[in-house]
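Example S7 (structure tokens).
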């Protein structure tokens, strides 16, 4: 698979750049192409990464438990003992990464660049260690504007302000973690920029009658629309954003009646980053509906169902997410970090019949505290992190408000080795 990928890169360079220079950089990997001043062509960066972890109980995860969401609810056996109160551990190197950073000649009066990035975590649990696409995008950059086309982070991820933690979850489910095919345009007004993006789904998708599938958005014929205003100064980054999405969960009911029923949802976001010397503070707050595809809590529920046609109507969940993250680096050799996140379930907009297409619909609130320390020596980094996550499980009422919630906690100890190239 790697040989096929490299052949593709070589062919791409021949077709578009005529004379491609392959430069294998020794810098720490980055997908920021702004400072890449070498000859036209492609350079490869990346890292080898190995994770070792221990959980105090069974957990809700993906990718063989590496991507942690929250602890599993108590599950009593015949003697009322909690089956999920059982520790577990695992090792993995699947998130080792290869990034190709591309620079080409000017086109349409713009500077051109691109990135192709992949790792070995597969597109699902059934494809563990499979070589999968993370990013593949091109950029056209003019003096006051920029056009990005391809697959990249959803703009709610915010590449300037996301948690600097060791865990693969990168703060999820308190923080969005999603990459999408998209068309994104940004206009720059000095230190202020305005971004508008049209987005569809691929690997990250919403839940529904066919389980997780990007078809719900495709069948709605309207892409996910996003607008974001950002201030980026020397010490501060501020931003505010709005997001709109429409899904069509079904084309036909279970009684074989055609249906055009859709569900429209919204999200709002604010964030801030402050940098002073070796200290960095980041924080973000999101209030949103149906954010399942972002690997966050929430989704939607069936509001009504017709007894004859089986026609369904829907109502979204409403969730609040808040997190803060501080990092301090000592002499570029030791980095200390602390992350804290909180999520609250405010139920559904209207009454529902108890049928959910959602993640964590039985969770009233969640919180997480994560201290970490990293030791850095040239291209090697050794990091350890303690992740304490609490989820309050209960039973949702007709409005989706969780009643009689009981806290369940998990403690994860993570040890990670990086070798950058």
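Recovered sequence:
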């Amino acid at each position: 698979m790697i040989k096929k990928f490299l052949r593709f890169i070589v062919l791409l360079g021949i077709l578009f750049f005529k004379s491609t220079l392959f430069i294998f950089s020794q810098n720490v990997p980055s997908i920021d192409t702004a400072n890449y001043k070498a000859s036209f062509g492609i350079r490869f960066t990346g890292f080898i990464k190995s994770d070792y972890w221990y959980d105090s109980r069974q957990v809700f995860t993906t990718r063989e438990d590496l991507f942690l969401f929250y602890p599993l609810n108590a599950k009593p056996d015949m003697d009322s003992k909690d089956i999920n109160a059982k520790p577990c551990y695992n090792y993995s190197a699947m998130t080792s990464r290869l990034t190709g950073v591309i620079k080409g000649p000017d086109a349409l009066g713009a500077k051109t660049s691109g990135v192709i990035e992949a790792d070995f975590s597969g597109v699902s649990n059934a494809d563990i260690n499979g070589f999968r696409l993370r990013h593949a995008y091109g950029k056209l950059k003019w003096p006051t504007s920029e056009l990005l086309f391809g697959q990249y982070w959803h703009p709610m991820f915010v590449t300037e302000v996301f948690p600097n933690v060791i865990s693969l979850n990168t703060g999820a489910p308190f923080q969005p973690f999603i990459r999408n095919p998209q068309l994104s345009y940004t206009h720059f007004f000095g230190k202020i920029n305005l971004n508008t993006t049209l987005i569809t789904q691929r690997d990250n998708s919403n839940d529904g009658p066919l389980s997780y599938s990007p078809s719900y958005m495709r069948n709605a014929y309207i892409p996910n629309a996003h607008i974001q205003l950002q201030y980026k100064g020397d010490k501060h980054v501020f931003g505010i954003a709005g997001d709109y999405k429409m899904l069509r969960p079904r084309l036909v009911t279970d009684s074989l009646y055609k249906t055009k029923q859709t569900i429209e949802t919204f999200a709002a976001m604010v964030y801030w980053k402050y940098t002073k010397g070796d200290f960095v503070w980041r924080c973000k707050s999101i209030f949103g509906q149906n954010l399942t595809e972002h690997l966050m809590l929430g989704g939607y529920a069936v509001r009504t169902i017709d007894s004859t046609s089986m026609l369904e109507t829907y109502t979204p969940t409403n969730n609040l997410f808040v997190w803060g993250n501080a990092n301090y680096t000592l002499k570029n050799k030791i980095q200390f970090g602390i992350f804290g996140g909180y999520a609250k379930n405010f139920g559904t907009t209207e009454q529902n019949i108890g049928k959910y297409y959602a993640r964590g619909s039985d969770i009233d609130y969640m919180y997480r505290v994560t201290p970490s320390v990293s030791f850095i020596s040239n291209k090697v980094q050794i990091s350890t992190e303690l992740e304490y996550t609490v989820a309050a499980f209960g039973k949702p009422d007709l409005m989706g408000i969780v009643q009689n919630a009981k806290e369940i906690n998990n403690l994860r100890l993570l040890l990670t080795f990086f070798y950058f190239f």
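Notes on this example. Helices lie at 2-17, 215-218.
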